[in-house]
Design brief:
Blueprint lengths: L11 E2 L3 H9 L1 H18 L5 E6 L4 E6 H6 L11 E5 L4 E5 L4
Parallel strand pairs: 1-5, 2-4
Antiparallel strand pairs: 2-3, 4-5
Helix pairs in contact: 1-2
């Protein structure tokens, strides 16, 4: 398993990553990627400790520890079915709420 260090203070919250994911993969495939991210959280994550993340450039999935987000002064109130979409190239992220 690969470990990636992400400094969230260098990334900007945006609202265009979900539409970009749909544009890149089509609506059905983008919805399936989000569904797989939620399934990953349910199968391998820890409630209130991890959050699923989608890398928008590749459609890759991972789980991120919530304390990593808190250390970066990035406060979130995590809810079930919440997914973080992340774009390394544009240094941006978007949180999808009720992503199911």
């Amino acid at each position: 398993m690969k470990t990636v260090k992400i400094e969230f203070s260098k990334y900007e919250p945006v609202t265009f990553l979900w539409p970009e994911l749909i544009e890149d993969y089509g609506f059905d495939k983008a919805r399936k990627i989000v569904s797989q991210a939620i399934d990953l959280q349910k199968m391998s994550g820890t409630k209130n400790n991890t959050m699923p993340i989608i890398f928008s450039g590749t459609g890759g999935l991972a789980l991120i520890p919530l304390q990593m987000l808190e250390k970066e002064d990035f406060k979130i109130s995590y809810k079930d079915n919440q997914v973080l979409i992340f774009n390394l190239k544009s240094k941006s992220f978007q949180i999808l709420n009720d992503a199911n």
